Amino acid sequence: MGFKVMSSTFGEIFRVSTWGESHGAGIGVVVDGCPPRVPLAVETVAAELARRRPGQSQLTTPRSESDTPEILSGVSEEGLTLGTPIAILVRNTDARSSAYDDMQHTYRPSHADYTYDAKYGIRAWAGGGRASARETIGRVAAGAVAKAALAQLCPDLQVLAWVEQVGDLRCQVPAHEVESSVVEANPVRTADAESAERMQDAITAARALGDSLGGVVACVVRHAPAGLGDPVFDKLEATLGHAMLSIPACKGFEVGSGFRAASLPGSRHNDAFYMSGDRVRTRSNHSGGIQGGISNGEDILMRLAFKPTATIAIEQETVTDDHRAATLRGKGRHDPCVLPRAVPIVEAMARIVLIDHVLRQRAQCGAL
Amino acid sequence: MGFKVMSSTFGEIFRVSTWGESHGAGIGVVVDGCPPRVPLAVETVAAELARRRPGQSQLTTPRSESDTPEILSGVSEEGLTLGTPIAILVRNTDARSSAYDDMQHTYRPSHADYTYDAKYGIRAWAGGGRASARETIGRVAAGAVAKAALAQLCPDLQVLAWVEQVGDLRCQVPAHEVESSVVEANPVRTADAESAERMQDAITAARALGDSLGGVVACVVRHAPAGLGDPVFDKLEATLGHAMLSIPACKGFEVGSGFRAASLPGSRHNDAFYMSGDRVRTRSNHSGGIQGGISNGEDILMRLAFKPTATIAIEQETVTDDHRAATLRGKGRHDPCVLPRAVPIVEAMARIVLIDHVLRQRAQCGAL
Amino acid sequence: MGFKVMSSTFGEIFRVSTWGESHGAGIGVVVDGCPPRVPLAVETVAAELARRRPGQSQLTTPRSESDTPEILSGVSEEGLTLGTPIAILVRNTDARSSAYDDMQHTYRPSHADYTYDAKYGIRAWAGGGRASARETIGRVAAGAVAKAALAQLCPDLQVLAWVEQVGDLRCQVPAHEVESSVVEANPVRTADAESAERMQDAITAARALGDSLGGVVACVVRHAPAGLGDPVFDKLEATLGHAMLSIPACKGFEVGSGFRAASLPGSRHNDAFYMSGDRVRTRSNHSGGIQGGISNGEDILMRLAFKPTATIAIEQETVTDDHRAATLRGKGRHDPCVLPRAVPIVEAMARIVLIDHVLRQRAQCGAL
Amino acid sequence: MGFKVMSSTFGEIFRVSTWGESHGAGIGVVVDGCPPRVPLAVETVAAELARRRPGQSQLTTPRSESDTPEILSGVSEEGLTLGTPIAILVRNTDARSSAYDDMQHTYRPSHADYTYDAKYGIRAWAGGGRASARETIGRVAAGAVAKAALAQLCPDLQVLAWVEQVGDLRCQVPAHEVESSVVEANPVRTADAESAERMQDAITAARALGDSLGGVVACVVRHAPAGLGDPVFDKLEATLGHAMLSIPACKGFEVGSGFRAASLPGSRHNDAFYMSGDRVRTRSNHSGGIQGGISNGEDILMRLAFKPTATIAIEQETVTDDHRAATLRGKGRHDPCVLPRAVPIVEAMARIVLIDHVLRQRAQCGAL
Description:
The structure is a homotetramer of 368-residue chains.
Chain A: E1 2-6, E2 9-10, E3 15-20, E4 26-32, H1 42-52, E5 69-71, E6 86-91, H2 113-120, H3 136-153, E7 158-166, E8 169-170, H4 180-185, H5 193-208, E9 215-222, H6 236-245, E10 250-255, H7 266-269, E11 273-276, E12 279-282, E13 290-291, E14 294-295, E15 300-306, E16 316-319, E17 325-328, H8 339-365
Antiparallel strand pairs in A: 1-2, 2-3, 3-4, 4-6, 5-6, 7-8, 7-9, 9-15, 10-15, 11-12, 13-14, 16-17
C-alpha cells in the first residue's frame, strides 16, 4: 500500500496535514481518512496539547502559550467523527516580541534560517516561522485523533514514551517496567523519580549557563497486533523512523537492538520462537517487535536522539543574509532542554503511524 | 511536495517500484519520472549489480547469481532515457535447492517467515520469497538510473558509502578522507586496508563457527546543493532515514552527530556560520549537512546499524507454522556478514532520495 | 509523475485539501506546494469567492453568505507566498434554520443523504454537511492561489468558462470569440446578452414552478504551453475530467470534439498540422488542444454537463432513514439553477490542474 | 482516502503501474496492493488479453500479436496471490516494419508524435512508442487481477461494456437488458445481432475508403454495494471518469443521465426513493447509481465517446520534426474502428477503479 508523505502531509489512509507559522494567525491540522463514529471531544485534544505546551514547569520555556484547540469540521454535534476531514485550529496568541528582531537578517546557528532562504528565497523570520516548534501542535492534535481511533480498533494497544537520557544522565528502567503514571508525575518525564531529580538539576544548571542539553526519548508500543507494516519500502520501522526523524531536533532513530546490533553475533541476536499457549512468542526481543518490516506481536521498542536546543544565551559566530560576519546571542524565551515536551510529540507520531498501518492492513487483508 | 512511499514504491517524482520473489521468475524494478535524454547503458546497471552480487569474495555467500539486467522499456535505441517508465528485469537463475525445504513449515528465528504468515496468511517460503535480500536488486538497478540522472543535473554531487564497523571492529578514517578507490579495493569495503584485514579475519572466524556478524555502514554525500529537502514531514533526514531503515537488516539510522548529540551541550553542538568567499559555510558539521530538514551545502553524513545475518549454522529453538516446538539449523549458503554487500545498496537508496529531492526542488522553486 | 487525488486532496505538486461541513464552524482549504514569492492578497481570494457566492442576483439563492476569507498561513507580511502551506478559512455565518429539520431523518431525492449513511453510518444532516455546495468555497479559494501562481509562471495563459446551455437554451458564440467582460456582465454568465436574457427568463419561470434547471458550462484555456500533461493515466484530459467530474452535480465531461467525435470519420476529425512561423499549429482543433494526453499549444476546450438542482419546492416521494415511505418538499433557499455559480468553480478547478501540470513538467523536464 | 494516479500508476490501494513501448522489449504491468489468497491463473489473464488483441476478426487490424502473458511475481506455486506485487510481462514479438519509417521525422496528425517531442524532446517513434495502443495490454492484464479480487470480495458484482454506437449507427438495447453472451457473440461487441451487422458493414466500408470510424462504448456495473466512492475529489464518477478518459482516443465521459441531464427539469430528473423489501431503491436512475459521489446500489451507468482512429490511408497535410511542410498517408496495419477492442479495456478500467474503492471502503469503514 501507499504511504503518503508530503512536505506537510503524512500517512496513507489516516492522513495528517499540518500548516502554520509561529507568528502567523495560527497553527492547524487536517486529519483525513479517520474512521467514522469514533468519539472525539475537543477536551481530549486539549489535554494532549497541554502536555506539549511550554511553560508547564520551570524546566521549559516560560512562554505562556494557551494553545486552545477548536475543532472546525469532521465531528458531529454529538461528538462522533463523521468520516470527513477533521480540521483543528489553534490560534497564535503570543505576540511577536522585539526579542526576535535579530533574527530578521542574522542566521541563527544550527537553525533553519539559512536553509529556508537557500530553498525558498524567502522566510517567515519571526520565531522561526514554519520551522518553529509550534508546528508540532498540529502533530499532537492529530495524535489525539489517532489515539481515539486506536481506542476503538485496537483497544489494548498502548503507546508510552519517556525521557531515557538527558545529556550524559541515563534512566535505567527497562522498557517493560516503565509506567505512564510515573512518567507524567515528574517534570522531566523520565521513568523514575531519582533520575528525574538528577536530570532536573542538570537542566537547571545548563539554563544558568545560558546553555542547553540534548538527550534520548524512548518509546514502547505494547499489545500491537501482529501483521502491521508492509514489506519493502514501507516496513513498520521505516515508517516509524520517517515519522520520528521528522520531529524537529531528532538526529537518530533505532528500533529494537538498534546500534547495539552491530556488535552482537547472530547466535546472540536472534530471537528464538516459542509457543506461549496459542501465541507465537520470542524469548528475547532484539527485533524490537518487528521482523521483515512487520509487527510480530511483541513490544515495539524505539529510541530517538535529540540534539541540544540550538537557541542559547551564549554569543556565537554567524553571518547575515547579506553575507557579512556577525555574532548572535539568543534572547528569546527558550527551552534549555526540549526532551520533556518531545514525549507527547513522539507518542503522537507513533500513534499516527500505527493507526495508518492498522487501516492499511484492514484494506488489503481484511479484519485484523 | 509529496513523497510517495508505498509498500513497493518509493519516491515522489522519481519513483522506484520493485517486485519479485527470490525463487519466482525474476526480480525487477520500474523507475517512473526520470528526466528524459539521460544517457543510460545496460552496462552501467550491470556494473552496480555486480557490486551487490553475492559470491564476489570468500566473505560473502558462495551462491553464484549472475544477475544480468535487461532494460525492457524507457530507453531509446540510442541509449537515452525517454521520460517514460524504465523497466528493468533480472531473471532468477539459481534453482531452489533442498536446503530450503525446512523453511516451508518452520519459522526461521529473526526472519520474516512468521510475520508474513501473520499478515497475509500465505507466503512464498522458498529462499525468503519477497523478504529475500534479492529484492534489493531492484533498488540497486534503480540507483544506477538515479546516478545517471544526478550526473546530468548535479554533476559534482558524489555519494560514497563504506563499512565503518564489523562486530566490535571500527575503521577510524574520518568521512571527509574516505576514498572510493580504497573502499572498492578491499573485500570488506572499509576505508583503510588495515581495518579491512582485521574485519576480514573476524568474518572468517564467525563463518567457521557457523555464526554471523553485524556492523555499521557510513555514507557521505559530497557537493549536494543547498536547498534540498522539505520542511515538516519530508525533511531530508526523514526521507533518507525512511529509505535506509527499509533496507533489510537495518536497525538504526543517524545523521550528523546522531546519538552523540544527546551528550553534547548546545554551545558545543551548534555549527557556527562563516563566509568562505561567496559561500555560507559552517565551522563544524554536527548538523550533518542538514538544518531544518533542508541541505545546507556541507557534507551530508549518515550512519546505519545492521544486525548480524539471521541465518546461522547453529541450532536454534523455534516453532512450526502449526504451532509445534522445533529446532532449526541454517543449511543454505548465506553471508556471515552482509555489510560489504550493503554498501552499494546504501549508495543506491541515497541517490534515489537525492534525485527525487532535486526534482522536487526544481518543481516548486525552479532551477537549482 | 504522480497525481495525488484523495477524498479531500487534489493534485500532485500543487496540492489542494478542502475541509468543512455546511453548518459546522467553517469551510477551509490548505494549498501545499505553491511556489514561493508569488504575490497573493486576501482581496484576490475574496474577489473569486464573491463570484461563487449565493445571493449575487435574483437567479441564485437569496442566502446571504458573506464568505470572508482569512489567510492563516503561508503568506509573508509583505504578501508573498512562503513556499509553505497556505491555509484559508471561511467561517460559516448562516445559522441553521428550521428549514433543514426535515433533512434529519428523511432522504432528499438525488442528494447525498442516503449514500453518506450507507458509507459512514453517520452524517452531518444540516444543509447537506460535507456534500453541501459550500464545500466548493475551498476549491475557489485554492483556484485564486493557482491563478496567482500561473500569472507568474505562464503569464499569457488564460482560463475562461461560461454558461453555454441552460435547459434547452443554447448560446452559440464559438469558444474563440467568448469574452470575459461579456460573461461577467450578465447574471447567467453566458457569452452573449441575448442568450442571457432568454436563459434568465427560463430560470425565473422554473423558480416560479418550484422546479430547477440544468445546463452546460464550457471552458477554454488559451495560450497554454505545449508539453503539459503526462502520458497514460495522467493525461491532461483525464486529470481535467477528474477535476470537473468531482464538482457537485456534474454528470458529463468532454474535451475537444467530445461525443461529436463518435459520428465523424477520421478523415474529417484529424487535425492537420501546418507551420505558422516557427510554431507547429493545427488547421482544426477537434483534439481540443490535447494529443496523446499532452497539450499541443492550441486552445484547450472542455464542456461539462450539470444536472438540475436536486432541491425543488415540489413534493417528492422518498423514504426515511428508518426505512419508512415519506414525502418531501424542499423548503430551504436554493438555486433554481447552479450554472452561473458553477462558472468560477470550473475555472478554479481548471487552474488547479494546470498549475500542477506546469510544476510537474518543470520537475521532470526542466524549464518550460 | 487517497487516489494515487501518476503518469503510469493508477489507484490508491490496488495500484496498477504499466510500462513499455510498442517496439521495445515488451509491455508490462505491476499490480501492488492486491489482497492475498486470491486465485489467479495465467490463463485468466491470457483470456482477457485475447479479447483485446488485434486480429480477432476482419474488423480489426490484421497484425497477429500473440500477447502471451507471463506472471513474474506475486502468485504462489499453487496459484494464489501472495499480497506482494504481481508483475506481468508480455513480450513484443511483432518486429518493426518499414511501414513505420515515415513516422521517424513526420508528425502523424492527431497522434502524439508532436506533443511527445514538445514534452520530452525525444520520442520512441516506432509504432507510437509509449503512446501506442499496446500500452493498454497492461491495463487489461491488471483488470484480470481486479476481476479475480472482486470475485472474492463482491461475488455478485458484474461489469459489462458494449459498443453502443459506431459512427452514426446506434444500438438501442437498454442497459439493463444487455447480455454478455450476445455482446461477445458478434465481432463488433454490440448488444444485438442486427445492429452488429449494420455496424460491421459501416466499418468494412470505412476500411475500403482508407478511412476510420469512432463511436460510443457503454458500460454498466451491476450489483455494486452501496457506499463506494469518496466525497469531494474522489467521487466515484470522478475516479471512473479519470480512468476512462485516460484510455487512448476517449474524448468524453458521462454517468447516468450525462449530457441529457442539462435539458431535464429537476422534477423529472430526481430519482424518487422507495423501499423494496429491506432495500432503499430509486424509481428512476438518472443518477447512474451514484449520489454525492457514492454508489447507492443501483446500476452504475457510463458512456464513453471514442474518436475515429487517427491513422488513415488517406493523404493528409502535416509537418516534419524540423518544421517543414509534408504529407503523410498511413501505411501500417491499423484498426478502422477501435471500438470492439475498447470494450475489454473499458471493463478493465472499471474493475480497477471498483476494487480500489472496495478496499478503501474496507480500510476506513470496515467490512462491506
